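cache lookup: miss for this entity combination. No prior model stored, computing from scratch. Input as submitted by user K.M.:
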Amino acid sequence: MTTQTSLTIGRIAQSAGVAIDTIRFYEREGLLPEPRRRPSGYREYDASAVSRLRFIRRAKDLGFTLEEIRELLALSADRHVGVEGVRERAAARLKAIDDRIAELQRVRDGLAELVEACPGHGAPEDCPILNALAEPNP
Amino acid sequence: MTTQTSLTIGRIAQSAGVAIDTIRFYEREGLLPEPRRRPSGYREYDASAVSRLRFIRRAKDLGFTLEEIRELLALSADRHVGVEGVRERAAARLKAIDDRIAELQRVRDGLAELVEACPGHGAPEDCPILNALAEPNP
DNA sequence: CTAGACCCTTGAGCTAGGTCGAGAGTCAAG
DNA sequence: CTTGACTCTCGACCTAGCTCAAGGGTCTAG
């Protein structure tokens, strides 16, 4: 038999490394199921809530939005198309990250060129950075 | 002599490719100087306002925040330490972008590994993605 | 002169993901 | 029983960078 653990919101916040307010926020947002309550109204959790919170945190670290995480959580409970869906979402996220990196790289290179060309002194009109920012075309 | 052009907010918005509301917003935020007004209250701009708007747009594309752009604009008018300051800010921005790219790359690699390891079918317990998200350590 | 396009101000709302405060009730140790 | 830590709800606020609505005045072509 499984031991029925009973954790307060403060305890799971501590275990999962998130703020109490964040947990209540996730509950409102449907990322966490509404937990049972003590007669006093206190929320009562078991260990699975901690896993779920960690799941959310990990996914967030991977750049998923809360909306996407909601989907992942739904899929993770689906024994039929769940894994397929999860893989799809992860692949999509991966592509989004790749796109973002490519975009940043483009910006980075443009900026690096300007910084290298700039002597760091002299008249504003001779600064390639300022000139690039001010020039009329595109 | 320079021809005194007189442009309405709609015209410079058009020329610079930004929304009218955005221009008024920039004015409130101190990115654009308060223009002179017609007796009716209409704002009157000259061509330099368009340059300035383009400057802002370019800088934004390079990832500068409006706060940073305010600084750049101030520096660009400074004939003494202006160029030095601009170069410093640009270098700092470059470093921030590099850091961000490195961070994204890290996330990307982690995610790519999981996606590759995931068969895309089978039981949720066998999905490396779900397992990685749910596992108890850090 | 009039219609329609343009402009004015003030103030609110939006996104995403929380974060905080007030005011009140509850729990556990001593 | 008391005290201090914990929890409850509700609602407001935060960042950044806009974006929109309401209600009104202005400009210009015909």
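stored under new cache key. Chain A has two domains: 1-62, 78-138.
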